[in-house]
């Protein structure tokens, strides 16, 4: 029997169909599928079928509405906005540029929003990229709010940021004339460093890579390998992982998936004469050494690549750890590891001989670290240079703070952080507050913060740094506003690269003829509406080993 019909709102139905197309990567022609139309007609005979062109028009209209809502949200953001940017070539060979905004909203939560995922025809020169980004910023009305731009190390990006910095400084008041504008993608630099080291173990890596390929070639080979694993007394827990040679983190995961089955490969070599890629004992030992060597680098990369928490305060200590690791291995008794570490150190010095000033400031603005973290770390490397290095960072910190002191206080600070309910305070608490205020008269908010006791890392290891600053807005004023902006700096361009990874689902081989403006609408809407679409999708930063 036909289901009982009920009155439906056709505008609501079309909006829901629009959301289905966006969230589930469906083609526009989905609305013309005979069985889909049959189902919708069965559910309600009053349903009016729509064409592919109508579906396109609905998506574009919905995109326009959401974009206006987003413009209003960004207009109301009282803080500075940080950017990540990258360029991608789709399956249809067209170039796309992705520009993502990172900022702290009025509730002091870190937000990331795609501003533009649009076609970028050649040439991809620094001038053209800068022109495209500036046009996008002006379209969104946020050109006066920009703080930083995080990019990978492509030469065109260096030119682009230089042009963009000059334009934003002269026309739109970039802080400190853009001195802190350009941020190099830390994950990309780390990739370049590790790739240098991997060249020292090319032989075992080649054999392991070919081994994984050989086993994954057919179900029969997979079954034979499983039998070998069981025969040597190892529990088969997970399959082998294939790496992408330009992504060292995938090489690390491949090594981890293979090394635990080391003894099984020798048996496989004896059982199957066509298998000719078994590493020697010496090569296995090298592979195990490099796997152990890469583990801390992998952990640091994962930490760098977070998008739901601030990373600017993490940069300094993690770069210092990398330098300490390389120094340690440079003095290792194993000549192979020593040579590898020395080569990696050369690449490290090219990009990180001098730590990023603004991201070192990010560490100071973590109340668990402050200036003490810089002093401690520099002392461990070379005590004779500590004082000079710390002084440089403190000078720049004061320079930046002076800019915030001379800028009107934002009216968009969360009201939940304003003032204190003195009625709930005890008399002794109030007297202590009053005494402290008198002592602090004449000092800047920065001086007060630096003199205040540092929080013990042991007790505040999982502290939400932004939440802490939110609660300290009354006490530190413009310094809290500055901390909010500095801590929103993304130290990697992973956000843009992740968009391309998911963007490949939008522009796949079945949808490669989509017009660029349709791709832009779908990708932008997916960022705000299609969270469920990314469930179960593992997104890895697309960091190639270009110098």
TrEMBL record:
What are the alphabetically sorted keywords of the record? DNA-binding, Metal-binding, Nucleus, Zinc, Zinc-finger
Name the lineage: Eukaryota, Viridiplantae, Streptophyta, Embryophyta, Tracheophyta
Task: Tell me which Pfam families the record gives.
Answer: Dimer_Tnp_hAT, hAT-like_RNase-H
On whether Flavoprotein is a keyword of this UniProt record, the answer is no
A GO cellular component term found in this entry reads: nucleus
Q: Where is this region: Disordered?
A: 525-547
Q: What is this protein called?
A: HAT C-terminal dimerisation domain-containing protein
Report the coiled-coil segments. Answer: none
Which part of the chain is the HAT C-terminal dimerisation domain? 446-522
Where is it predominantly found? nucleus
The protein's location, in the record's own words, is: Nucleus
Query: GO MF terms on file?
Result: DNA binding; protein dimerization activity; zinc ion binding
Name the domain of life this protein comes from: Eukaryota
| Ranges of compositional bias, category Acidic residues | 526-538
InterPro entries, A to Z: hAT-like_transposase_RNase-H, HATC_C_dom, RNaseH-like_sf, ZnF_BED_domain_contain
Q: Where is the hAT-like transposase RNase-H fold domain?
A: 305-404
């Amino acid at each position: 029997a036909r289901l009982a019909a009920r009155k439906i709102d056709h505008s609501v139905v079309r909006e829901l169909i629009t959301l289905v197309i966006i969230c589930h990567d469906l083609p526009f022609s989905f609305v013309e599928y005979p069985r889909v139309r049959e189902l919708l007609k069965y559910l309600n005979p009053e349903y009016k079928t729509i064409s592919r062109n109508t579906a396109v028009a609905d998506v574009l209209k919905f995109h326009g509405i959401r974009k206006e809502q987003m413009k209003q949200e960004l207009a109301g953001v009282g803080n500075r906005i940080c950017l990540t940017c990258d360029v991608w070539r789709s399956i249809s060979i067209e170039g796309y540029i992705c520009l993502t905004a990172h900022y702290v909203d009025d509730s002091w939560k870190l937000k990331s929003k795609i501003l533009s995922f649009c076609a970028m025809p050649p040439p991809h020169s620094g001038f053209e990229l800068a022109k495209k980004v500036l046009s996008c910023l002006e379209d969104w009305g946020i050109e006066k709010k920009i703080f930083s731009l995080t990019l990978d190390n492509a030469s065109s990006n260096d030119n682009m940021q230089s042009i963009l910095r000059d334009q934003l400084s002269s026309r739109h008041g970039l802080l400190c004339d853009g001195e802190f504008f350009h941020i190099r993608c830390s994950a990309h630099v780390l990739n370049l460093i590790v790739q240098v080291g991997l060249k020292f173990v090319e032989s075992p890596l080649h054999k392991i890579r070919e081994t994984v390929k050989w086993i994954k070639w057919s179900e029969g080979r997979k079954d034979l390998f499983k039998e070998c694993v069981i025969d040597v007394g190892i529990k088969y827990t997970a399959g082998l992982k294939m790496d992408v040679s330009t992504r060292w983190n995938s090489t690390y995961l491949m090594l981890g998936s293979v090394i635990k089955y080391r003894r099984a490969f020798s048996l496989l070599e004896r059982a199957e004469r066509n298998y000719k890629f078994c590493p020697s004992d010496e090569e296995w030992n090298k592979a195990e050494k490099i796997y152990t060597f890469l583990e801390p680098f992998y952990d640091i990369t994962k930490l760098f690549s977070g998008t739901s928490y601030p990373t600017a305060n993490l940069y300094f200590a993690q770069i210092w750890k990398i330098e300490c690791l390389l120094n340690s291995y440079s003095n290792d008794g194993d000549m192979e590891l020593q040579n590898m570490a020395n080569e990696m150190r050369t690449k490290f010095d090219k990009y990180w001989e001098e730590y990023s000033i603004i991201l070192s400031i990010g560490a100071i603005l973590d109340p668990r670290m402050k200036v003490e973290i810089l002093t401690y770390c520099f002392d461990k490397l070379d005590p004779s240079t500590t004082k000079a290095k710390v002084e440089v960072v403190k000078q720049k910190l004061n320079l930046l703070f002076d800019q915030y002191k001379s800028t009107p206080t934002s009216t968009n600070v969360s009201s939940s952080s304003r003032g204190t309910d003195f009625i709930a305070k005890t008399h002794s608490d109030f007297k202590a507050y009053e005494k402290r205020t008198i002592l602090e008269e004449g000092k800047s908010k920065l001086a007060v913060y630096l003199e205040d006791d540092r929080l013990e890392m042991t007790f505040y290891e999982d502290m939400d740094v932004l939440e802490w600053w939110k609660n300290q807005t009354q006490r530190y004023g413009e310094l809290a506003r500055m901390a909010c902006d500095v801590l929103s700096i993304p130290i990697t361009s992973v956000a843009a690269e992740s968009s391309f990874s998911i963007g490949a689902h939008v522009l796949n081989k079945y949808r490669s003829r989509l017009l660029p403006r349709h791709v832009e609408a779908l990708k932008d809407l997916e960022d705000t509406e299609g969270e469920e679409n990314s469930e179960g999708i593992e997104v890895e930063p697309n960091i190639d080993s270009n110098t």
